[in-house]
Amino acid sequence: METALPLPVSILAAGEGTRLRGVDEKLPKPCMPLHGATIAEWSLNAFYAAGVREFRVGLGFKADMVRNNYLDIAERLGIDIEFVTVQGWEKGNGVTALALARSFSPRPFLLSMADHLFSPQMIRYLIDFDMDADKITLAVDPFPGSIVDLDDLTKVQTEAGHVVAIGKELTSWDAGDSGLFYCTKTLAEGLETAQANSRFSLSDGVRHCASKGLVLAATLPGPRMWIDIDTPDDLRLATSDARDLLTELSVRSTSD
């Protein structure tokens, strides 16, 4: 299926980010500073550079502070951002993902974690991937050891172009979950089923979809195309070892 821009992007920004907040107890994760900008600004700049112009952000923890941060960035970029305040976000990120998925239905959309930073080239790679209207597509990284903590990585097992298993606990796996998805109504259906069984993470919903053969794997063509900033160690890695990627993330398209 050919995918045409503009695709909207939904951003999961409701979580408390307890492991990273030790760096600054007052700041929610999207508002954390990194190389002269906030984590949220690096994220939006990359999507903007990839051609995305429609943004929807799921809010929960310190919603007003997070909203104001995104609004400041939107003003500088000259874009509008819609917000979804999520009830029950504390249960898991799947609750926020479901709220955002329902807000887009039946339109397809991209989905991203607030603390995952991607190069514009990676975003375009997923947008240009050969999609299926009835399936989810996850960008998977066969080189994750070059930039993220493998112990904390959500791992995936792929087979014949599909994700067949996903989870941090996997012992047999061949790629990492980058946290960037192309989503259809299938995601909402998977999340609803998972949450009906008291499973509230995004991975729980994706796992249900994968069990039915409904998750495609878009295998990234090269290493170091994204960063997951989940812990103080991740923040130090981004600060010391990923300057080239972060610089790339800050470059916006001048052709619009």
The topology string of helices and strands comes to EEEHEHEHEEHEEEEHHEEHH
State the distance separating the first and last CA atoms: 25 Å
Strand content: 15-25%
Structural Rg: 17 Å
What fraction, in percent, of the residue positions are helical? 25-40%
Number of helical segments with 4 or more residues: 8
Residue stretches low in confidence (pLDDT < 50, at least 5 long) are 251-256
- Mind describing the biggest β-sheet? 9 strands, mixed
Which structural category do the helix and sheet elements fall into?
alpha/beta
Q: Kindly state the mean pLDDT as a whole number?
A: 87
Silhouette: globular
Overall number of strands: 13
